[in-house]
Amino acid sequence: MFKISEFSKLTTISSRMLRHYDKIGLLKPALTDQENNYRYYTPEQINQANHIRSLKNIGLSLTEIKTILTESIEESEYLTTQKKQLETELAEKKLQLSYLQLLEKKATASPDNLVNYPIETKQLPEILCISYRKKVDSYYHEEQLWQQLFSTIRKQDLAKLNQSIAIFHPCTGKIDIEVLIEIPKTLQSIYPAANYFLPGLVASVVVSGGYSSIPNVHKDLQNWLQLNNYVRSGNPFNIYHTSPATEERDTLYITEICYPIK
Asked: What is the pTM of this model?
């Protein structure tokens, strides 16, 4: 039989950890001297210790290892579960590393690219909207579309309107913009041309201030889609939480840029 110090050297498990294993009932010594409390282990227990080390090396907790060794549970089930968990963690770490490399690259670029935008995914519900769509020469002409849309709304209904959205449709040459205003369903009969807009799953970024930073937001979103293996499933759109229509200073603008994804 081996003293605890000898068994520790053979198994490369510290004496302190062996005492802990004894305490929790994971690997109890074959014999404990009642007079001096010395612990003694048999050669057969080396294999037990190696088994514990192997399971510990793949990330299983001591509680899980004890369950495997002391209860009638298939070890293969634990191994399969642990493999899936490690694969998920590895994929997440690879993604984090890719995004870190992207941020490092941006940090060494021009000062205009130093702002990094946190991107989240969310499921947006369908909303009832009235809309106006037109091709324009510049994004600055979007305001004209809003003026046209608001001209179709009764004054008594203005206070009942909800969020404002602009969808940017693909187009060659000019810019194809569709502006939408969410209306309550109680007004559906008043505006028979109203339709439902169903964004579904989107990747979104909320930014404050003027619109000069939006091109960089789109770059971040496109890189994020690639890193996360998403593809666009619809046209990008902006949700204007506050805008020139509600705020005089552009520092108070709040815009949510959204990409429908799958």
From this structure: 0.62
